[in-house]
Amino acid sequence: MTSDYAILVVDDEVPFTEIMAEILRSYGLQTRVAHSAKEALGLMSDGVPQLLILDVMMPEIDGLTLMGQVKSNTKWDGIPVVIASASVMPDQQAAAFTAGADVFLKKPFNSKELRAALRPYVAIPDTADLLAKRGS
Asked: Is this prediction's pTM over 0.85?
């Protein structure tokens, strides 16, 4: 599967998406954000991300429903999904994994937890490489 950008962050909380985008861009990853499932689907029709980071609780279409739509589309079904949610009820985590999530991160999480969650799916340059790139 070819990718047009690295990560799409989907969350209705604007401060969260702004912080996530800043962190991910500091890793050298091209990142887009969407504040609704509809917006995410629009962005995905224009370009396919390598990975999705989804909130579960969003208005209109929740993250698990969005993930189901992504997984049922052959153009997108191989995209890894990281669920990032403040709700950590065991049944919600189980539902996320049953629906096809690859990782479940409990909000708030730190940058080390995020990096560890992403490493199996997205190439993240080492800090030294990023610093050298910025210096050139």
From this structure: yes
